[in-house]
Amino acid sequence: MGGFNQCRFPETSASPLASLEIPENFDTAIALFLRLQDREEKLRTETSNSLRSLEGALGDEFAGRDDTETIQNLADQLEALPEREEALSRHWNAHIHELKGSLDAVIKELNEIHSAADQLNRQLSRIQISNLKSLRIEAREHSDVVSRIRRLAEMEQPSLFDEQPQLESTLSAFRERLQLNPLIKFRDLFALQFNVVGDDDTTRHYQEFRQIESHGTTITIKVLFNLLILKSQLRKDDSVVPFFLDEIQALDPANRHAILSTAKKLGFIAITAAPESVTEVDALYFLQPHRGRVVLRHKHRLSVRLAAAAAN
């Protein structure tokens, strides 16, 4: 009777899974009941702990009025899991396709920059600048960003639930970069470098226009670079664009000739100013103020024509 008093009627709304044969011996029946009661208590504790863990991870979205209803809600979600996975996979594929399209566009723009640099190099190779043997422009990619963009753009369409450590590593590194700065500008992807070979066959590298060899060489490269860039942006070949260049006398005759002849070939009108006359221009205007004003008319134009012997 002591063992019988330890038996508790199970309070549950669940139906019994199977009927057990009750032993005819009273003590044996009590012992079986107590064993099943202990097992039920352990299972109840494990179930409660598991439900608390799920609630901590998922919130109370699936919580029911009791454990039985909560478990049924979870079971319903598990049954619907294949459909949810399919929907997530469709969204994932669309997202990856859009991401790859955006990255492909970035890579295409970078390739166009490299192509533009090659075109500029071909044009610069036909112009003699100072005593330089060659001048080349190189678009140097920032590998920490561009390499990840290229890997993501060239990757095969990954599945949402496949384990891909390499892709995960690339995405993680790219995510960290975007968390530091969500806006990536083109200047963050590459930098222009000017490679100059002098008359001593020494190659020097410059990252900006501030000082490339001498002052005259720097000015010449700046002007030629901008003329070639502007010409590439003009939609019509017959466009004529004027530009102004002050203190042209500071350049040596070779550089003056390089700028003015290139400008004429590209369709630019060079308007220059100098305290003294130079012979590389087509015409000269000597400015003389009259009553505080300077008025230029065609009659003030002096054409410059070099003699054949001097030209040769």
Question: Can you walk through the features of this model?
Answer:
The chain is mainly α and 312 residues long. The chain has nine helices and seven strands; from the N terminus they run ααααβααββαβαβββα. α4 (81-124) crosses α5 (143-154) and α5 (143-154) crosses α6 (165-180). The protein is rod-shaped and about 135 Å long.
Main β-sheet, spatial strand arrangement: 1-2-3
Give the H and E element order: HHHHEHHEEHEHEEEH
Task: Please state the structural category.
Answer: mainly alpha
**End-to-end span in angstroms?**
132 Å
Please provide the count of β strands.
7
**Rg from C-alpha positions?**
41 Å
In which range does the helix fraction lie?
A: 40-55%
Approximate shape: rod-shaped
Quickly list its features:
rod-shaped; 312 residues; two-stranded parallel sheet; 3-stranded antiparallel beta sheet; 7 strands; 51% helix; single chain; mainly alpha
Topology:
Layout: H1 2-5, H2 26-58, H3 67-79, H4 81-124, E1 134-141, H5 143-154, H6 165-180, E2 190-197, E3 203-206, H7 215-233, E4 241-246, H8 253-266, E5 268-273, E6 283-284, E7 302-303, H9 308-311
Parallel strand pairs: 4-5
Antiparallel strand pairs: 1-2, 2-3, 6-7
Helix pairs in contact: 4-5, 5-6, 7-8
Overview in brief:
The chain is mainly alpha-helical.
